[in-house]
Design goal:
Layout lengths: L1 H18 L5 H23 L7 H27 L4 H8 L2 H13 L5 H21 L12 H24 L5 H23 L8 H27 L3 H7 L3 H13 L5 H26 L1
Helix pairs in contact: 1-4, 1-9, 1-10, 1-11, 2-8, 2-9, 3-4, 3-7, 3-8, 4-11, 5-6, 5-7, 6-12
């Protein structure tokens, strides 16, 4: 089940690559969130899971939704829309455990071990090798895979990292399904506003786009959440966290197979080093928790 969860999660980046030729990123995600809510809210009602009763908790959950879903997915989709390869986008946001560990010290008072510091350094070295093999700094800010794409995916990385810390600090009492629905509501409002202000909102309703949208809604936004609930119930949440470092290579393999996205040997070496850095950080954190 944890392996299945990671395999499903990695297809989100591929779904972005498939769907973005037919809709702009904020418009695409707004439609995805609305479709998800049309399924998720009735599911909450059928399962009779209580909604949070505290307006303050609703507010905190909405903030995490804007960060974890709005900023994260908005940044990833916009970066891929601007030309960043799906595998590289996956690797960049896959550094989230490194950034979270680095920020947890000053924000939450959690000290880093020497192995975690080593993991942070290796992650930075690895991503530098990957970017050095792929990024063309001569491109303009919003042209192809230039600084615009890098800025967007970096914003996604910051969003998921800050959102994770914020949720850990303020949303410990969040019920999973209703909380996820509230997060999607907030993210839909954020990205819907972005689509209204900055995009044409034109959608080419091709078969490919509708199939991609259906996959992202049913498999990613609904099934993956239910699978995560089952894993947590079985006490395997830590195993899921330890397998998340497999998402970048799995995504890169899928992108190579479907879109012929390739990394040079220097980039592949950098990906391996970065993933090993994430493994060090995650494993060390798990061992300290068990101790």
């Amino acid at each position: 089940m944890p392996v299945l969860f990671v395999l499903l999660w990695s297809t989100g980046f591929i779904g972005a690559k498939f769907g973005l030729p037919y809709a702009e990123p904020f418009t695409f995600l707004f439609i995805r969130f609305i479709c998800t809510l049309l399924l998720l809210v009735p599911l909450v009602m059928v399962m009779r899971v209580p909604w949070p009763t505290s307006p303050k908790l609703w507010g905190h959950i909405a903030v995490t939704g804007c960060l974890v879903h709005g900023t994260y997915l908005g940044g990833v989709f916009y970066g891929i829309y601007l030309g960043m390869p799906a595998g590289l986008a996956s690797l960049l946001v896959g550094l989230q455990p490194l950034l979270t560990a680095a920020c947890a010290g000053p924000l939450l008072g959690e000290a880093l071990t020497k192995r975690q510091w080593l993991g942070l350094v290796l992650g930075l070295v690895g991503i530098s090798l990957v970017l050095g093999s792929k990024l063309d700094p001569s491109e303009s800010l919003f042209d192809g895979f230039g600084l615009g794409a890098l800025f967007s995916v970096t914003a996604a990385l910051l969003g998921i990292s800050i959102g994770t810390l914020y949720q850990k600090r303020f949303c410990t009492r969040m019920p999973l399904l209703p909380g996820t629905a509230i997060q999607y509501m907030a993210a839909a409002l954020l990205l819907g506003s972005g689509a209204l202000l900055f995009e044409t909102r034109n959608v080419d309703w091709t078969t490919t786009f509708m199939l991609t949208l259906g996959w992202l809604v049913l498999i990613l936004s609904i099934s993956a959440i239910l699978l995560l609930m089952a894993l947590i119930k079985k006490g395997e949440a830590s195993r899921v966290a330890s397998l998340f470092y497999l998402v970048p290579p799995v995504t890169a393999l899928q992108a190579w197979w479907l879109f012929d996205e390739r990394l040079p040997w220097l980039g592949l070496l950098g990906m391996a080093i970065a993933i090993f850095g994430v493994v060090l950080v995650v494993k060390t954190a798990q061992n300290s928790t068990k101790a």
